[in-house]
Amino acid sequence: MKEWFESWFDTPYYHILYKNRDHSEAELFIRNLFGELNTSVESKVLDLACGKGRHAIFVNSLGYDTTGVDLSQESIEKAKLSASDSLHFFQHDMREPIQDAKFDLVLNLFTSFGYFQDKSHNEKMLTSIHAYLGDNGRLVIDFLNAEKVLNELVVSENKLVDGILFKISKTVENGAIVKDIRFEDDGKKYHFQERVQALSISDFEVMLERTNFEIEASYGNYDLADYNSNSERLIIVAKKVKK
Fold first, then answer.
1. The pLDDT of residue 93
2. What is the per-residue pLDDT for 117?
3. In terms of C-beta density within 10 A (0-12 exposed, 13-18 middle, 19 or more buried), how is residue 243 classed?
4. Cross-sheet strand order for the sheet of 164-173
5. Alpha-carbon distance 158 to 122, whole Å?
């Protein structure tokens, strides 16, 4: 059976539901992050789980050689419309190594972690990243703040987008935050789920140490304020260390 992200991300309805994401906020975050990291313009950057490439395209506009990968072939085909000699896109499962490639900075943004039914795949993903990061390379994970989300869980809501009424409910099951999405279009009923593990900063500390990363910093929002239990996000900057 397919995991939830293999079907949901490849439907046009996913992009309809989330069409109003804030691009200016994403660009501000990238500018803040790259300034804080003092990233060399010679750095090669990988956007891991890039979707249609909104972050990768902006990173590339700042002068960085940028690659975006995603499991969704539909998203990659859209992203490829913006490809150039210094901006590359291809389909890839983030749990697997990328052969014959080295990157100086890997970005895993907008809660693109903790998707897997088998939690051991989190470390499989991190091990793969370690293999294609150059010496002293960095990994940035932009994740939800699970503590805040669990404390403020919105059990149900409806969203009307492009004439489609999305009926959304949220529950917690086996340590995962589950978003149930139901809607009807052209007389046909649809049902999808999103399932993200409710990982704490302590969970990340353990996983990163086990896969030979060292956390350098943690932030709580896109302005890079310090992280705490009430922060909007959990943003981790980790440095590759030798095995």
1. 96
2. 87
3. exposed
4. 156-161, 164-173, 176-185, 188-197
5. 31
- How do strand 133-144 and strand 103-108 relate by DSSP bridges? parallel
Backbone dihedral angles phi then psi of residue 57, each to the nearest 5 degrees: -60, -40
Span 170-188, average pLDDT: 96
Average pLDDT over residues 129-150: 96
CB 95 within 8 A of CB 128: yes
List the domains of the chain with CATH numbers.
Answer: 4-145+200-240 (3.40.50.150), 149-194 (no CATH)
What CA–CA distance (Å, rounded) separates 72 from 2?
13
Spatial CA neighbour of 18 closest among 63, 105, 26, 138: 26
Would you state the pLDDT for residue 25? 87
Q: Which two tokens stand for residue 237?
A: 């900057």
Residues 6+ apart with CB under 8 A from 66: 44, 45, 46, 47, 56, 57, 59, 60, 86, 87, 88
Residue with tokens 């490809």: 83
pLDDT (tens digit per residue) in 63-98: 999 999 999 998 999 999 999 999 999 999 999 999
143 in helix, strand or coil? strand
